[in-house]
Amino acid sequence: MASGEKVTTPSGTSLWLTRQGLFLVAAGHPASAPDTLLVADMRAERVRGVELGSSSSAVRAGIYRGPGAPSKITIAVGDQTLQARIYTLPGSPGWVAYSAETSTPLRSDRTKSTVRAYAADGALLLTTRL
């Protein structure tokens, strides 16, 4: 995806990437105040994430800066496992962004998510709880 190119999820959340990181704006919120995950704030071999939600849906998104290039990222929350969409900038920035959306609202108990990244051959690259 091109730097600054916006993607809109079915619930209306907008996200975009720049060399600095991932930017998200929930539906109905001002684009001038995005939730931001900056690559410079992350150590190597890490995953960071953010959750945005309403009473009818939730978006879980983040940055993977781990070993290898993932071909699949999943996000497990409670008994639900979501297949994330992977976004990357041209070239080799050394990280990818991911997002998954569900029609289930954010849980009030703030159950932690488990993010797993897999290589093309199915090998687990990294797992972390957010």
Question: Can you characterise this structure?
Answer:
- With 130 residues, this protein is mostly beta strands.
- 0% of the residues lie in helices and 48% in strands.
- The chain has no helices and 12 strands.
A few lines on this structure:
With 130 residues, the protein is mainly β. It has strands at residues 7-8, 14-18, 21-25, 35-38, 46-53, 58-65, 72-77, 80-83, 85-87, 96-102, 114-118, 124-129.
CA-to-CA gap between the ends? 25 Å
Fraction of residues in β-strands: over 45%
Class from secondary-structure proportions: mainly beta
Mean pLDDT: 89
Essential attributes:
single chain, 130 residues, 4-stranded antiparallel β-sheet, mainly beta
Itemize the secondary structure elements and their pairings.
Elements: E1 7-8, E2 14-18, E3 21-25, E4 35-38, E5 46-53, E6 58-65, E7 72-77, E8 80-83, E9 85-87, E10 96-102, E11 114-118, E12 124-129
Antiparallel strand pairs: 1-2, 2-3, 3-4, 5-6, 6-10, 7-8, 7-11, 9-10, 11-12
